[in-house]
Amino acid sequence: MPIQVTCRHCLKRFQVSDKFAGKTGPCPNCKKPIEIPKADEQVVIHAPTDGAPKDSKGVSVLKPIQRKETDVTKSGLLISIGSIVAVFGFALVFRFTGENGTAPFWAQLAGLVLLAPPLVWSGYTFLYDQEREPYVGPELRNRVLICSAIFAVIWVVYAFVPSYVFELNAPSEMSWTVFGITLCVMIALGALASAGTFELEFFNGVIHAGLYFIVIVLLAFTSGVTLAGEPGEMDRYLDPEVSQSAFESSPVTATDTTVPRSPLASLS
User: Fold this and answer.
1) Residue ranges of region Disordered (predicted)?
2) pTM score, two decimals?
3) Which of 87-101, 199-213, 216-230 has the lowest average pLDDT?
4) What residue spans of the chain are helical by DSSP H?
5) Residues 84-102 as b or e (16 or more Cβ within 10 Å = b)
6) Is the domain of 18 the same as that of 110?
7) What residues contact 171, with CB distance under 8 A and at least 6 apart?
8) Are residues 127 and 183 in the same domain?
């Protein structure tokens, strides 16, 4: 059996035959004399023993822990797509059957709430950190519901903040520039909610929240809801065409504005 030798001068490792055990000879690398250890002086490193219970064949009866994955299942994907298609279908129905060609307010709120869970769940299954064990079961369900509620509440930013800051009668009277800035703020708030709820990185949180808010914007266009760019009262007043049409439709009738001639004028 060969003996493992390490030169104490150059630290070169090599093997020699066991017949040289206990003898002195030159190192094949640095040529300096070294002593070959005896066979009983070798340090043998054994593999760690496995203290786990084994069967009659010596195979461990313990099974390794399998990591649970949260991949997009076929049923979950079908439910998400079906929910989104159903909501958009109802939006079209309300648009063509509504009084003003738009969905009623309660239907708009229902769309905000119903679309949140499938979008939040499907977004998380694509964006979760692969190095972490994903959330599953009731814990995943609770986090999806919490994040969905936060996403829906963030629309309060659109509904009230611009109207309050710019003193508008309705959020739809804001310009498209202001709407774009407001939407970016909403996505940033949603990204913080996603990062806090699902422990996502902020960039993935932006994608996660942006998916929901962009789909809601598309839903608004589908249902005929005006999100921005609608002229306000001051714009209608300053617009010549709007002012002229308003004047023509006014119920006020024209009156004779001729100043009556004074009787004293004939004496002059």
Assistant:
1) 246-268
2) 0.59
3) 87-101
4) 74-97, 105-127, 137-166, 176-198, 202-222, 233-238, 240-248
5) beebbebbeebbeeeeeeb
6) no
7) 158, 159, 160, 162, 163, 227, 228
8) yes
